[in-house]
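hiii, so i know i said id send this last week but things got crazy w the move. better late than never?? heres the sequnce for the chain we talked about at the cafe, plus the structure i predicted for it. fair warning i was half asleep when i ran it
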Amino acid sequence: MINIERFNDGKIVVLRLPNSNMNNSIQWEFEDCCAALSQDSDVRVVILTSSSSDFVSSPSANNFSLAPSVSAIKQPILGVISENAHGLGLELILACDVRICGLKSKFSMSHVMQGVIPSDGGTQRLPRIVGQGRALEIILTGRVVKAPEALEMGMVHRVSATDPLKDAYCIAGKISTHGPRAAQYLKEAIYTGVDMTLRQGMNLEADMSVILQSTLDRTEGINSFLEKRDPNFKGD
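okay and structure toks below
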């Protein structure tokens, strides 16, 4: 079963994948969990991690699709890799907004060694994150990328010297204090905008900014600044 923990009055949710091989039952449960969290107005940040040493264990490289459920989550999502993320696990992590790993973490996409190619977004997300040339070299060779190199190329954003999950809690705590609607609009503007022309992206950004100007959270942000206090955003 997938384990769900809630912290900070339900604003931070930890979604933990089980320590077992991926199967259809787990995939269906995962899809349902992601859909429910995305619609939960109390949730401001999601932390995705795993109980397994490998982020997702799968006997077959191409039987499952988890990344679309993650990318559909409206709230910011942090991916935490305590040890390794290979194949499907790396494809899933790449769908997260912020990725944090441990000092000894390792990554790879060795699908080609099994006569197949990544099919859960690996051929699309990895080039967008690390660049086309690097992505081709990593996927064509199937080689292992260690944490320092993963950080240098942008595959992960932070390498934790102690506990990546603890570091994720700190980041999530900071994000959870921000305006939740603004955070969601920010994600949409960035992810949608990269597939637009610059002018189209600028128009999208302007439209979303105008919408946010009329929210109660925007009023709270102004008032808290004038009153020199921390804002209390409610998502209104």
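btw DSSP finds ten helices and nine strands in the chain. thought thatd interest u
miss u guys!!
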